[in-house]
Design goal:
Helices cover about 80% and strands about 0% of the residues. The protein has about 300 residues and is mainly alpha-helical. It has one domain: Up-down Bundle (Growth Hormone, Chain: A), CATH 1.20.1250. The relative contact order is 0.14.
Length: about 300
C-alpha cells in the first residue's frame, strides 16, 4: 500500500504521468473500470479453477480441458453484440447490473457441483451464465469508460482500461486460487491420514491437487480408489469455498453499479465537453463577412490585371 501511495503521489506531481490517476475522479469512468476489473477477476479465477477441476476430478488431459472451455468464448461472442444493442437502447447501467448478477448466478451454480457432476448437466450452464455476464459487462462498460473522457484523454483511458483488466484477472487467480489451496491443503491431510496414508505422503498430496492425484495413482490397490475419492472431494470443497468469494464480489459489483452508474446513458461526457465537441463553429459576424468579401474582390482585381 505504501508503494502504491508513493506511485499515486508521483503521478499526480508530474506533467506527463504514466497513469493519469486523475481520471478516476470521474465517477462513471471509475465505476466502469471497476466493473471491468470485477468481470475479469471472475473470468480468470473461474478458468483457473475449472481447468483444474477438469483435470483432477474429471480426468481430462490439458488439451481436452482447454477444449471444454471453448463454449465460454462462443457464448460471449454471441451475446457481446446483444449487450451493446441493449446498452444503446436502455443505457449501460441496467446491462452492467444484469451482467454482474448473471456472473454471480453462474458461480452459484458451481456451489452444487460434486465430483460426479456432468459437463452437460451442470458445468455448461455455469459457463454460459458467466460468459453472458462477462459480455454484458465488458462491452457497455468499455464504451462507458471511453465516453466518460474527452478526446484528448482517449489514449490514457484505453491504457487504464487494459490495465484494469490485467489487475482484475491477476487478483482473480490470486484470491480464488489462495482460497482453494487453503481449503484443499488443510482438508486433504486429515482425510488421507484417516484412511491410513502416512503423514509424509499426505503432506506431499497437500502441495497441490495434481500432486494428490499422483499420490492416489501410486497408492496400493486397496486404498488407491479411496485416496483418489478423498482428493477429489476435498478439492471440490475448496472449489465451492473459492466460488463463494466470487459470488460475493460479483454481487457487490451489481449493487455498486446500481448506485454509482445512475444517470449514465449513452455518453457520460460532461455537458460542456459534449457541446464543445458537437456544436458547430459560431456563425460569421458582419466583420468576418466584409473581410471575406474584400478578399474575393482583390482576387478578382489581381486576375484582371494579369490578363
Amino acid at each position: 500500500m505504501l508503494v502504491l501511495g508513493l506511485f499515486v503521489r508521483r503521478q499526480l506531481a508530474v506533467d506527463y504521468p504514466i497513469l493519469d490517476v486523475r481520471l478516476f475522479s470521474n465517477r462513471y469512468f471509475a465505476t466502469a473500470a471497476g466493473m471491468i476489473s470485477v468481470a475479469f477477476f471472475a473470468l480468470f479465477g473461474f478458468i483457473f479453477l475449472i481447468t483444474q477441476y477438469f483435470q483432477a476430478v474429471k480426468g481430462y488431459g490439458p488439451l481436452e480441458a482447454g477444449l471444454w472451455t471453448l463454449p465460454f468464448a462462443l457464448v460471449m461472442a454471441v451475446f457481446s453484440p446483444v449487450a451493446m444493442a441493449l446498452s444503446h437502447r436502455f443505457g449501460p447501467r441496467p446491462v452492467a447490473i444484469t451482467g454482474a448478477l448473471l456472473m454471480s448466478a453462474g458461480f452459484a451454480v458451481v456451489e452444487v457441483a460434486t465430483p460426479s457432476s456432468g459437463y452437460w448437466s451442470l458445468i455448461i450452464w455455469s459457463m454460459s451464465l458467466m460468459a453472458t455476464g462477462l459480455a454484458f459487462i465488458s462491452g457497455p462498460c468499455t464504451q462507458l469508460v471511453m465516453d466518460a473522457l474527452s478526446p484528448e484523454q482517449a489514449g490514457a483511458g484505453a491504457a487504464v482500461n487494459d490495465t484494469t483488466r490485467e489487475v482484475g484477472g491477476t487478483l482473480g487467480v490470486a484470491v480464488l486460487g489462495s482460497i482453494l489451496t487453503s481449503v484443499y491443503a488443510s482438508g486433504v491431510i486429515d482425510r488421507l491420514t484417516a484412511l491410513g496414508v502416512p503423514r509424509d505422503v499426505a503432506q506431499t498430496a497437500s502441495e497441490s491437487v495434481m500432486a494428490g492425484v499422483q499420490t492416489a495413482a501410486r497408492a496400493p490397490g486397496p486404498i488407491a480408489e479411496a485416496t483418489r475419492d478423498a482428493v477429489q472431494q476435498v478439492f471440490t470443497d475448496g472449489l465451492r469455498g473459492a466460488v463463494w468469494a466470487a459470488i460475493t464480489v460479483t454481487a457487490l459489483a451489481a449493487v455498486a453499479a446500481a448506485f454509482l452508474l445512475r444517470g449514465a446513458r449513452h455518453s457520460a461526457v460532461d455537458d460542456d465537453d459534449a457541446r464543445a465537441v458537437v456544436d458547430p463553429a459560431p456563425p460569421a459576424t458582419v466583420d468576418d463577412e466584409d473581410t471575406v468579401r474584400g478578399g474575393l474582390l482583390r482576387e478578382v482585381d489581381d486576375h484582371t490585371v494579369q490578363r
